[in-house]
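Components:
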Amino acid sequence: MGTVVVENKSDVEDSNSMTYNKGVILEPNVEQSPNKSESRTNGSSDDKQSSESTKESSDELITDESTNKDAKKDDKRLAIIPKVHRRVKVYLLKDEAWIDHGTGFCSGDIESDTNKPFFVVRNELDQEEIILKAYLEGQTQYQRQQDTLIVWTDHEGNDIALSFQETEGCADLCEFIIDVQRENYSPEISLYYVIPNTSLDDNGGSSDITQLVAGPITYPPTPSMTNLEEILEIINQCSTSVYTRNCIVNFVVEKDYFSLLLKIFEQSEHDHSLINLYTLSEIIKNLILYSESKIMEDFCSNEDRILGLISILEYDAEFPNQKSCHRDFLFNKAKFKVVISIPPLKDSKAFNIFKKDYYLTFLKDVVLARFIDDQTFSLLNSLIHMNQIAIIEFLKDSQNNDRFLEKLFGYYKDDKNVELKRNGIRLIHQYILLTKNLQSFQRTDFLSLLISNGLFDMIKYALNDDEFSIKILGTDLIVSIIEQDVSLVNSIDGEGIDNFEPPVNYSDKFQKAGDKKFGLKLSDDMTLITLLAQVLLKEKNVGLKMQAFQALKNLLDNNIGKIDENGTIPDFNATSPGSDISTESYFKAFYNGVAPILYKNIIEIANCETIPPKLLDKISSDELLYQQLCELVSFGIITHEKLLSRPFFLKNNIVLGLVKLLGINCKMTLKLSILTCLSNLLSVNDKFIMRYIIKNQVMDYYFEFFKTVNNANNLANSTCLSILEVLNDIRIGKNKSTFKLLIKYIHDNYKDFCLNEIEGVETGKNVISLYDQLDTSNLKINVMDSRDIPTDGDIIEEEDSDSEDDDDDDEFYDDYGEIYEEEVDSYMNEKRLRDDDEDEQPKKRVNDNDI
Amino acid sequence: MLDLDETIANIKECKFVPEKDVEELCSKAIEILIEEGNIQHLDTPITMCGDIHGQLHDVLTLFQTGGQCPDTRYLFLGDFVDRGFYSVETFLLLMALKVRYPDRIYLIRGNHETRQITTVYGFYDECLRKYGSVNVWRYCCEVFDYISLGAVIGGDQGVFCIHGGLSPMINKIDQIKIINRKQEVPHEGAMCDLLWSDPEDVAGWSVSPRGAGYLFGINEVKKFNHTNNISLIARAHQLVMEGYKEMFDKQLVTVWSAPNYCYRCGNIASVLAIDDNLEREYKVFEAGTMDITSLPSKKPATDYFI
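Structure:
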């Protein structure tokens, strides 16, 4: 169908398309005229002489009194006939111009004796005068244009247009056309919508879209060995409009057309009829690309059909010399491994949901991956999704699945069958992966069910298994659980949060958690963390180690006690309304029980004069572990309660142990991790850490290393420079005395190096100039202070002497954020130094005018 | 031990590279990259390439257009991964070439070479799909952290190469030296700007619609080039339909090397060859047609457990 080009040859002066649409609706008098379609292709009459048509059209306007007032009308007829008469202007085309033939009220009706449908328009001033009566007959094609116009050419060649005052009126009468076509009053007529296309086509013009809404449909014939081309042609043509697509879809499903095609496929394959096979494949592809769930469900409704579908799609006309081997893969390579036999399905014909999952995924990822569009893709996805929900529901339903989970996890208590246990782990891993597509609460639900059935027994077994791939799965399982909801972890060994049983319904639990009187706390059970620590220490595989480290960090997230509504940990520093669970004993247990094991070698190194070769070997054989330990120092110092983390890292001399490694022969990656750790420690600008660094001459190890890479253009040099840059960036205000002490230390020991040997950048000079800018008159006292490092005092003492700092530290992050929010320009300005008193609140520094 | 030549040949044929080979390749690449400065000083002649985004087959066309590595020296301006279907293979190929010919191919980091971006734009999913776990993604992300940030080609009056553009915090190229680049690309600051900014007809620095980096205008470019004694800023980061686009009195150029970007943009791609006299030659190329072996498909696991 061609497009309608708007050509305003109307009798109204101002009628561009904008005012046209509005005018029809707003003006009481229908003043707009339809536009002659210049390139309207019309099945019944093309290029009629307009003079002729006008002449004939006047004949058409017969005053016909025969409005049916017969009492007997059947229900169907009544249902079709519009109830409301719609205000309309009638136009006829004459000499390329639309001539107004009057305004009236339009309705549709069906003659009760002949069953012939027609439009009728009665004069608005005189009900008795009929302006137009037009039968809907023959193969007339109706076009709906611009929401308010119905245009057609009748069988005598007259071009007629009805211009409705309201969109609803037009829609009403279009509905009438559709109904009479569908209900077989006039099965051969058709209705098209002309939709204006605002987007530009390749040639820069816009072209309207014509869409068939109702009309006669040619259905594909029963497939045979000789008519497949014809079928393809029909399927193809019908893909263009929603209406025809729907018709074909209903036809295919109702007639079980797919079975017929499958029979022909079998025969074609048997006869080696390649042409037929390619055509069949095209037919199926076209049908799938209809993107109709009915079709997809029909094709995939049982195992035989889906296999048939896959078989047909092995052939592809685009690649005539090749054939896919989907069947070979499915029958000979893919294996369904039954770990626990499930009870036979009640309906033996029903598609096994597990197989269905596999086949559908195979269809999506392999068979169809190449040609399906986004729409079909998501259709297939939702089909898969629905089935997966069914799988999960089945696994949860212990009554109907013969205690599946209970039996499965039971293996890990006593059974000796290793292969069975391993397959069980693979099975659970597979289904947990599958739940990633589910909604969060469904997932939590499923996971907590697994946990209450003994998932942790399985995980413990997995992590201790000799088979490497099983260990990976074990760690993966932990990560999955943590990512979903950290609080699930604490139900380990039946010791739920505050002795709650593992939450069955998370939302319930959350409501209770929100109620403070329950006084929730994280348990100090370190089973899982210890397992992960063992993976870090013993495992040689890089991927597994990285994964375990990530899991460990998740478990040690400081916000672990603050779980938000979704059961996930809020971002660091986020002010979440989530429940706040006491974490003190939890982190204490980590620093007392697990961390010493992790850092054992580092502690040993810190406390010996020269590092014994045995320890050196240990380090160089597992550099990744020590890189991770560096990261864990930064992580602990920055995010954990400092009264827990700081004493551990400082008192055990772990920082010293790490910087000592800068001098040994190990990979540069490890050394850079150590430097980054040092950089982080400095940037925290903590009084005790700074004192520790000065007292233990940590900076000596740093400068020693710096000198070996000075002025090299490499990452090591940049990292060293960035540490001095951290010092330049520290804004004095809190912790002034110890910072000055550090600067003095650098000035006294490395002035020459900083001033004269670091080339190309100002970093070294800037650090030294810090010394000159700082008031150093009271440094002596601070030096005394520095000897009094509270590394031996207990936590309570430290807290007392540190109370002032505490205030500062608590606001450290706010302060840090503030720096970054300031204009970048000012960031680049000369380093700002302030001589504020130590006890000034950092937040007040917004008044920066005096700088 | 890894046979690099064989690995390179395999990747070019889009064959599967085992996880342990990826790990070895990554750790070797890190050893090399760690020795490179944030800004590398490179000699001419050299050929520069913009974003390639996992379009492996187009990268092969790129090498046909610009000359094979190691015969031609290359500098890739970042955005190796995401969006295309072959991010894994593309990045592995570049890494393998880097390890095999460390001074014939150089890489600098693009804004897509980060954990955060790759989890959103495809590389993460691709690794998960192709390897069944995200270990390969983790290894590659480790490498990303070590990739240098930019390069200067040809010394005086040479070319400054960067993925995104300029930063208001960087006046002199030497200032880039003090960045500890071994980190996830931050959301703000100099390192972020260098990877995210775009040139635009604006006066001064203005807010970037991307939400990171800045827009910078002709004045910033001229001032930067004058201060640093360079004649051209070569960058990538933005799709240009013609493959390259010179701006600001030819003092800045955007090079784009992913033809028919995302397999649908219909654009041409180019590489920029800089000769010993610092003359520029743009070599354009179009997307090749895919053959059946290059069609995207994912093999599922063979075992399904019930």
